[in-house]
Amino acid sequence: MPGGHTIARMATRSRARSVLGSFVFLLVAPGIVAGVVPWLLTGWEVRDALPGWSVLRVVGALLIAAGAAVLLEAFVRFAMQGLGTPAAVAPTEHLVVGGLYRYVRNPMYLAVAATIVGQALLLGQPVLLAYAAAFLAVVAAFVHWYEEPTLSRQFGSEYDDYRRSVPGWWPRRRA
After folding, report:
1. What does the domain layout of the chain look like in residue ranges?
2. For 12-23, what is each residue's pLDDT tens digit?
């Protein structure tokens, strides 16, 4: 049986692997979905503004900032509390239900969608609104058909209770 120092070293290594894995996944998945694809669709070209467009651009910038903050908080929480990553190939050891996950089950997907909508408003590129809608449709199907059944198998009644008490897509006001 390992001693206290050995257990502490193992936990530190596990947490370090989780942080590194989460960082890599953050660059790859949201980086492609909310970075590379919008760039491919728009070239980051800012369209000419319509009257009143400046307000929408400010809203867009705020959505991008909020989306990025939510993503970073969620990824850190997966690594530090869950001891894993959001990636299916390196899942968490513990169900993550703290922080924003007390209000909504899918804050990362909502953050990515908010970032894409923010880009649409900031750049004046309606094509990104259609892309955001398609993204949400795909992730909603993924959550329903893969993620929820997988989490239910992995965490059992703990996840089922969490799923019953926390909404999936529309955040509740109180934790």
Report:
1. 4-165
2. 556 677 777 777
